[in-house]
Amino acid sequence: MATLFRNLSLVLTISFLSCHYLSVTSLASSDGFVRCLLQKIPGELVLTPSSSSFADVLVSSIRNPMFFNNATARPLCIVTPVDASHVQAAVLCGRAEGVRLRARSGGHDYEGLSYRSARRGEVFAVVDLGARLRAVSVSGGGEATAWVESGASLGELYYTVAKSNPGLAFPAGVCPTIGVGGHLSGGGISMMSRKYGLAADNILDAKLVNANGELVDRAAMGEDLFWAIRGGGGESFGIVVSWKVRLVQVPTTVTVFVVGRNVDQGAADVVARWQDVAPSLPPELTIRVIVRGQRATFQSLYLGSCADLVPTMSSMFPELGMTSADCREMSWLQSAALIQFWNPSTPVEALLNRRTSLSTFTKAKSDYVRRAIPSDVWKNILPWFTMNGSGQMLLEPMGGFVGGVPAAATPYPHRSGVLYNIQYIAYWSGDGTAANRWISGLYAFMEPYVSSDPREAYVNFRDLDIGENAVAPNDVSTFESGKVWGEKYFAGNFERLAAVKAAMDPTDYFRNEQSIPPFVGPKQVRKA
């Protein structure tokens, strides 16, 4: 950190020169960008709106039809790189021709910012990593590791690792179609976070194309930038093309259970008790809760056998009433498929399916809870799920390994003292008025019971409602506008992220509506 601030005088100089460079080149035509690309990479990797496959590739990773309509700002073109040199070419051409880039790995950004702009008139191109940059290479010698390209899905990573060695796994999210690039750069909560930490806690190295078009690894990028991309959002600092991750040991047999409780079966009391129990359970045991309709569903992964799990549940969480009849024993890879699809006959190969659907509109928001919500309050929360337009609430416990990591160790700050994360999701087809009213209303109702100053949020559950960047006349996102939403995602780590941004991308080339803004100001200089 000291090194970063000692170099700020140099950063100020670079910032001035780079701003001049971008302001001159931004006058170039968008046609110049495409011509530049075609001089550097094979033509079949550059898709313009006139290309026959442009629409199919664009829609291939769009998860929300809200962001695929006539009002959606479309990219100038889509670049489908086969290797890192193609990403470098896209950055160099973009800088030279004044065209910004948005990188997409799996398309799960809840606001669609990896493939669309919420700003009218913005000229941008999409670098679609998920089209061709999806290789996974496992190394089992010594510490088990894997190099995984950013376009790979979590399902592809899980499948390749487990087929290489059934005793290995990687702690990342439940949904198999999520792209590795976005998930890791935002932190990555999982059913094994309490045992092994976030996905970002298990990143050992990365290869990133920076704002100068250089391909750098951990040694070349430096520890400040390496810190920033492990939870601070990789889209702000460059395009990460691949990651080296630490794989974790899992037993031959793991156990999954699902137990539901309706309101008339005391769901409110059981959820209230879960808040105290779940963060303090043995780290091998994770129980998350899905609230929908008038039912709370308790879904669990235990890294061990049913015979060992039942006594633990009986002694620590008897209120749930879980028994051996609820157990399903299987391999870890099978558990990844079962928890997602909840169909015992679904083969593990289903984890490789990247197909998406545009049938359902969605809106998501998030919170963190540091003090248990009383049972009486839960009895007032559950009726929200009888309302017109109601969706669901997902509660994911913290504690264990993830809670023991210092808040400043990575940009993800929601560590010690956090009981659980809340994800609110609204679904609709057709008119979304009721669903949007429901999620906004529930989010407002929950304010007294969740974290405050700031009201914390999870960057991987992106929500533009909590704030967007303003762009200053010098064409750089302002620090003050970013601080509004940034401290909710990153708390005290936001300023350091903005300092890294200033050092690595002072002209704000890599940006979107919630990218980290560069911060070079008197307050920062005084720290030198």
From TrEMBL:
The keyword Flavoprotein applies. Its cofactor is FAD. InterPro entries: BBE, FAD-bd_PCMH, FAD-bd_PCMH-like_sf, FAD-bd_PCMH_sub1, FAD-bd_PCMH_sub2, Oxid_FAD_bind_N. It comes from Oryza sativa subsp. indica. Keywords: FAD, Flavoprotein, Glycoprotein, Signal. This is FAD-binding PCMH-type domain-containing protein. Residues 1-19 form the signal peptide. SUPFAM superfamilies: FAD-binding/transporter-associated domain-like. Coiled coil: none annotated.
